[in-house]
Specification:
Distance between the termini: 154 Å
Largest sheet: 8 strands, mixed, barrel
CATH class of the largest domain: Alpha Beta
Number of strands: 21
CATH topology of the largest domain: TIM Barrel
CATH superfamily of the largest domain: EAL domain
Strand order of the largest sheet: 13-14-16-17-18-19-20-21
Number of domains: 4
Mean pLDDT: 83
Number of helices: 24
């Protein structure tokens, strides 16, 4: 029985070896097509190992059987030793078989891993966004990827065995390609922009990178190149470059282009050439109305048509630019005489005089033109453009639809305006603006009925006339700050009048910009609330022009303010173009006759009499401004005028002086010398 047990042990040793061999065969993935042959080799080896194990087991079993049959029982110890020796040998064989199986398994894993990486690299090669070309040392194409086909139009089989020279275009000469070869030879790589010919014969810009692969001896074995299509990028770059120096709407050169052009052109006009350079600053009149009425899309279409009209005026060597909005510049670089400037300006006005058509609508457009010259009106591009701009604004001031040459007087006026504007800003910051008050007097009783608040600028120990700084402030947002300052000071001072028992209504002049400000009503409510001022003591004066600019809008604002309890008066009445029907709809309590009619009362008696008659028919109070003599006062009283204001009664007084004036009047005494 001992030998049978031993035979079973041998089988148990060999059986795992067999299982290992079979498992090795099954561990080879059938999906790896490239290693299919290797799989069959491993399978054959496993079958061979199975057969060898079987026959070895049979041989050992047979040998053990024979030994058991002939061996005497007394020789059991010798037999046992032989069996132990044989078992040890079998164990060594089994261990060697196991180690061999492990080596086979590791090698199989390594080969399969390498194949997986090869598959991955192939997929990456084909799916790269850049076109890839691989050549041998003689520049024969070995492989290309899908991106190369997409960029060039050449398929892989069409370029295999050929050289990259089939992509050569006529955009580069031979010297260009020779430089590439020299750089490759010295550095081993090259990168740059090239124009390549596609399979359909067209050429396109590409960014090309070329590298080389060398062996241990430094000999080039392969070249590889990557190419990227940059046509779209170059198109965008050209568009960005164009828009940096051109207007997107009209496609005309812009201000930056103009300044560069002037900087190059000015040196050529120095010396005794006798030629002038001229800048025409063209600004459309009332273009905002087109945008407001027809919309910005139609406004843009009009600008395009205007650009076309202006181009038709250009002479040889002239150029046209758009600065922005409705502003254009026409540059003449070779002007032989000043009359040529007048001729060109008239041609521009004539070209724009013809009607424009916007979606079957007929539109008429005028322009104001300012002209500056070099040499004479500026030493650099910015000065010339600024001088032409000043002349253009002068043309607008004088009636629009005309041209104006720049003069040095304009520059001096601009400089003074600039100084005044900066001074106003500084004055507001340092509280240099003060409010004076001038009484309005009942003609019949000669007593003060109300006051008018008037702003004054105290600077350097002197008073600056409102006629100097108010027009400048009205051209900027500074008028809002001045009006707010006057309203604040008036409400604050009225509390002082109340405290002294001499309170009378106070009127404040409101600029058009402030009156139309959407926050104006909130400002009034805030001031009345903070200073606890009875709104019936506050009156707002607006000019006739402001009231009639947009009657419906004016009515809406006046009604809202009137509901607060504030009264209105129309200032400078008779100087504008009032509609009596519109005036009758407005919540107005007083009309003020402008002082120009009062100062020359004899000549303007019919006008003054008419204004007084209108006010009486409309049950409005009427105040005559600028009264300086007793004769004027008596004549106004004879016509039925109720109140008067002017130096005859008192000049504008500071707050302390007007307080004393009112107190003296209430006490029944004469106001004193300060009145006049």
């Amino acid at each position: 029985m001992g030998w049978q047990v031993f035979a079973g042990s041998v089988v148990l040793v060999l059986l795992p070896l067999l299982v290992v061999c079979v498992l090795l065969c099954h561990r080879v993935p059938a999906a790896a097509g490239e290693v299919l042959a290797e799989r069959w080799v491993l399978l054959a080896a496993s079958l061979f190992a199975l057969a060898a194990a079987f026959f070895l087991g049979r041989l050992v079993t047979a040998s053990l059987g024979r030994l058991a049959a002939v061996a005497p029982p007394a020789g059991g110890e010798r037999f046992t030793g032989q069996v132990d020796d044989l078992a040890a040998r079998i164990r060594r064989v089994a261990e060697a078989a196991r180690e061999s199986a492990e080596r086979v398994d590791a090698e199989t894993r390594r080969r399969l891993s390498a194949e997986d990486f090869l598959q991955l690299y192939r997929q990456l090669f084909d799916n790269l966004g850049e076109g890839i070309v691989i050549t041998d040392a003689q520049a024969t194409i070995l492989a290309v990827n899908s991106a190369f086909t997409a960029i060039t139009g050449y398929k892989a089989h069409e370029v295999a065995g050929r050289t990259p020279w089939l992509l050569k275009s006529d955009r580069h000469d031979d010297a260009f390609y020779e430089r590439i070869r020299q750089v490759l030879a010295s550095r081993g790589s090259w990168a740059g922009e090239v124009w390549s010919r596609r399979a359909d014969g067209t050429v396109s810009p590409q960014w090309l990178r070329i590298g080389s692969v060398r062996d241990e001896a430094g000999t080039v074995r392969y070249y590889f190149a990557s190419c990227t299509e940059i046509g779209e990028r170059k198109r965008r770059e050209r568009q960005v470059a164009f828009l940096a120096h051109h207007d997107a709407l009209t496609r005309l050169p812009n201000r930056a282009f103009l300044e560069n052009r002037l900087a190059r052109a000015l040196p050529a006009h120095g010396g005794d050439s006798g030629l002038l350079l001229a800048v025409f600053f063209i600004d459309l009149d009332n273009f905002k109305n087109v945008n407001d009425v027809f919309g910005h899309r139609q406004g843009d279409e009009l600008l395009v048509q205007v650009a076309g009209r202006l181009k038709s005026v250009l002479g040889r060597g002239d150029s046209l630019y758009r600065l922005g909005s409705d502003e254009f510049i026409l540059l003449m670089e070779r002007v032989e005489s000043e009359p040529a400037l007048y001729l060109t300006a008239n041609r521009i006005l004539a070209a724009l005089k013809k009607p424009f058509t916007l979606e079957f609508r007929t539109i008429y457009v005028n322009a104001s033109i300012g002209i500056s010259r070099f040499p004479g009106d500026g030493d650099n591009p910015l000065e010339l453009i600024r001088s032409a701009d000043m002349a253009m604004h002068r043309a607008k001031t004088e009636g629009r639809n005309r041209y104006q040459l720049f003069t040095r007087e304009m520059h001096e006026q601009l400089y003074e305006r600039f100084r005044t504007e900066n001074g106003i800003r500084s004055g507001l910051l340092h509280r240099e603006f003060v409010v004076y008050y001038q009484p309005k007097v009942d003609i019949a009783t000669r007593t003060t009925t109300s006051l008018e608040a008037l702003i004054r600028w105290q600077k350097g120990g002197r008073l600056i006339s409102p006629g100097v700084f108010i027009p400048v402030a009205e051209e900027s947002s500074l008028i809002d700050d001045l009006c707010r300052h006057v309203l604040e000071a008036t409400c604050q001072f009225h509390a002082v009048l109340q405290h002294h028992g001499v309170a009378v209504p106070v009127s404040v002049n409101i600029a058009p910009r402030q009156f139309l400000n959407i926050d104006f009503i909130d400002l009034l409510e805030d001031l009345l609330g903070r200073h606890r001022m009875d709104p019936h003591y506050l009156e707002l004066e607006i000019t006739e022009t402001t009231a009639m600019r947009d009657v419906e809008h004016t009515l809406r604002i006046m009604e809202q303010i009137r509901r607060l309890g504030i009264r209105f008066s129309i200032d400078d009445f008779g100087t504008g173009y009032s509609s009596l029907g519109s005036l009758n709809r407005m919540p107005v309590s007083t009309l003020k006759i402008d002082k120009q009619f009062v100062q020359d009362l004899e000549q303007h008696t019919p006008i003054v009499a008419t204004i007084i008659a209108i006010s009486q028919q409309m049950h409005l109070n009427v105040v005559a401004e600028g009264v300086e003599t007793e004769a004027q006062l008596l004549e106004l009283a004879a016509m039925g005028c109720q109140e008067a204001q002017g130096y005859y009664f008192s000049r504008p007084l500071a707050d302390t002086e007007i307080l004393r004036y009112l107190a003296g009047e209430r006490a029944g005494g004469a106001p004193g010398e300060e009145r006049r």
